Amino acid sequence: MDSVFDIVSLKKEIHLKEMVFIPFEMEEKMKNYIKKNLLFCLSAFLLASVIALCITGTVIGQSRINDEEMETFYQMKEDEMVCEVRRYLNENGFRNSGVALTRVTDAEGNREYTLTVHHDRIDVMSDEERNDLKNRLSAFDFLTEECSFRHEFLIVDK
After folding, report:
1. Helices (H), the chain
2. Distance between CA 10 and CA 5 in Å, rounded?
3. CA separation for the pair 60, 62 (Å, rounded)
């Protein structure tokens, strides 16, 4: 009987050992599973953060380029306008006129231009002739929503 008892006892012992080892193995598997999932989530979060920063940097960079491009555009239009006005004045008897274009830009980006012209012949013109010349010079204004123009003559009293 000893041998049967030993066999049954041995079976119980083996069964108990298996039960003791199974939870320990499962605990290790769970720890590894949690570590892997935590590492995956952390990696996904970091990757998403890097992508978000790259997109933000691109948008900000494009915005800055657009501002620079707009400034270049307006600078070219301003230079072109002054050259055309000078050419027009030279062709119409106002040689060597003083032509100045000043700009004031407000916080919203709206621009107010003042074109100031000086010539001795303008000093002696009547108000009607000056208004007529102002109207002709207004044809050289470049039209955009953000811009407004004024035309002035620098009159020197003698």
Report:
1. 2-91, 120-123, 127-137
2. 8
3. 5
Work out the angle at residue 135's Cα, subtended by the Cα atoms of residues 83 and 109, and round it to the nearest 5 degrees: 65
| Among candidate residues 68, 64, 71, the one with its CA nearest the CA of residue 146 | 71
Return the structure tokens found at 153.
């003559």
Give the number of C-alpha atoms closer than 13 A to the C-alpha of residue 106, restricted to the C-beta side.
Answer: 8
How do residues 54-78 score in pLDDT, each as one tens digit? 777 766 665 565 778 888 888 999 9
Token pair belonging to 112? 């107010």
Q: Quick: pLDDT tens for 90-101.
A: 999 999 999 999
Instruction: Tell me how far apart the 2 most distant CA atoms of the chain are, in Å.
Output: 142
- Residue pointed to by tokens 């890097």: 50
Find, among 84, 112, 110, the residue nearest to 99 by Cα.
84
User: In 3-state terms, what secondary structure has residue 84?
Assistant: helix
Q: Which of 154, 147, 153 is nearest to 103 (CA)?
A: 147
Contact by Cβ (8 Å): 115, 85: yes
